[in-house]
Amino acid sequence: MSCRRFALPLVIAALAASPMAPAAPVVPASDDVVLERLPLAANDPTARRLGSLRARLAQAPGDLSRATTLAREYVAIGRAAGDPRYAGYAQAALAPWWKLERPPTEVLMLRATLRQRQHDFPAALRDLGVVLAATPLDAQAHLMRATILAVQGEFGAAAKACAVLEIAASELLWAACADGVGAMTGRLPESYRHLSGVLDITPKADPQTRVWVLTGMAEMAERAGLATAAERHFRDALRFEPDDVYLLAAYADFLLDQGRAAEVTVLLRNRTRADTLLLRAGIAAATTRSADATDTLEQLRSRFAASKLRGDRVHLREEARFTLELLGDARGALALARDNWAVQKEPADVLVLLQAAIAAGDGAVVQEMTDWVRRTGLQDARIDGILRKAHPK
Amino acid sequence: MRRCLPFVIVLLCWWSQVAWAHKPSDSYLTLRLDGATVVGQWDIALRDLDFALGLDADQDSAITWGELRARHAEIAAYAFARLKLLADGDDCPLVAGEHLVDQHSDGGYAVLRFSAVCPHVPAGLDADYRLFFDLDAQHKGLLNITLGAATESGVFAADAPRLHFDTGGGGSWRQFRDYARNGVWHIWIGFDHILFLLSLLLPAVLLRRDGAWAGRERFPAALWEVARVVTAFTLAHSITLTLATLGVVALPSRWVESAIAASVVLAALNNVYPVIGERRWAMAFAFGLIHGFGFASVLGDLGLPRGALLLSLVGFNVGVELGQLAIVAVFLPLAWWLRDAWVYRRLVLVAGSVAVAALALAWLAERAFDMKLIS
Q: Where are the domains of chain B?
């Protein structure tokens, strides 16, 4: 039998069953058709550990230590994989305490983490406030509080929260916190040098902290225009955590900025389950005019549509970037970037709002961003370049 | 079979290229209320079902159709124990239907079809949804519900597991508008109605003199001709639409649909071999009566809310008229402008009518003898 006759229908059937266009439901042709691949095989060590923790909690759902142990595992896996389902599992494990005004400290910390991840920053800060009222020297709580305040652009309050860490935490944690804020408020070179020095004299830092510090340093170096150093830090961090979604996204942004889109495609191959990474892969595909650029674009479109359906506002920054860089819709991107700006004010948020405002010809917003950069003392090679072009003097 | 290999490889590559999204857990619930019956479809992520029930029997991290099929009864029991539909507070028991699968942006989904028969036609329908909230506190159920001509959406969440819907559709003005919109839509997608009307209107800008067509000289005359045809058609189909909807007259739909096709054939042929002269309005009226029954069956399919029957009927009819006027508003200036051109008199009027008649003849055969020719 010749194959051509049914090759086309086959391809059409495959396309019709694509995730971009949910087709009509079907009965699969045979029992062997694979419908889904689970993130963890049942005999994977992590899956086994989670399974036994879950079973133990099911025997005693009110057991605080079992619940928080399981929730912490879920939070960690969800963060590393960029998979939001684990946040829901963690919250369910904490259900008996979730709605309490003052649950135990362990629950408060986990609840603050999950609320931070959903970008409910005010609620997360409230939880941390309760923790700190009871244990004023809780380093973890101060660190998370400083991080959230910095994301909100409250640099003064963030610096104060970091200052407590000088007595409450290791030198490296304190330096990472304080220098992180310093680097956003007019002291980028000094902060970067100081943090590098502290990291050099802390060879025994645990890998997780090291990756976190290295990622921060890489971003500082990038903003200072020190591409070679940034590259080195990213690569060092990736040696410890090759699959960390935040790190991969930051590195991909760096590569895109350096005009190395082809490397992004290689870096993110098979790692595009997280929207943040698919976005970078999509921009790389569009830049290199790759064949699957349209395909990725449609996938992104359907993912943003799906989160709109459920009322999620977590990926506004990504959606603004998608709308600007891949859809070329400056007005739409500006509206999204403004909504995003009301929630978070990191350099990446300044950047996307500024670019959208310039593309849409909104001078007032460009001025607003210019004032913000001047007032806070934010230094960022990329933003500076854009502002110089926008205000040629 | 060997020659197929390249294609199979292309397909496999295509599949592996698909990047399922990391997405919070959602299920997609579609409900459609029809009288006292609710017809539903529920798409539930396989990953979530696996988390709840453990579907991966051979522990290879892949869920196959065989593994899923073996657990169908258990899945249906699990899911339907967590969904309740209530007609004014009275339970509408759910009956599981077929199991299918589908894909959404984050992977494979089990598709559960079901129906529920309520003890009476509800004035208010409540949906109570408890799926997965105990396992994933951020799970959401995304609901799409069709009540008569209106479609609404809603989101079930752990802190909002119950949604209420007025089957009246929320206010009579809104309902009127919904039915009017459906009326407009139906005339626009109802090719047979449009072709019938256009066939009768094509000669309106012309006059038959000595066995040949010539353009009319005065616009008011053309306008009057159009108005006569449109008014006659409207009057006639309004009468039968009302009678059929109120249940005074009922005709078998095969008969009606065939007669509508026949009316298009005759109206088109009349442009090629004019037999009824200037009395096209009479034809519009006579066959308009038949078209009214066609509209009535569409309105019946949409479902009519008890207590607002007249309102929806008038709304639908107004919609049909508005849709018709829009078509006329586009047609008339164009036809007037082109009336003296050869293109209009030969190509559009004659060749166009022949084509329409041929198409309608095929419809007639399909509908009368229940065959498949073109559609």
A: 21-166, 172-369
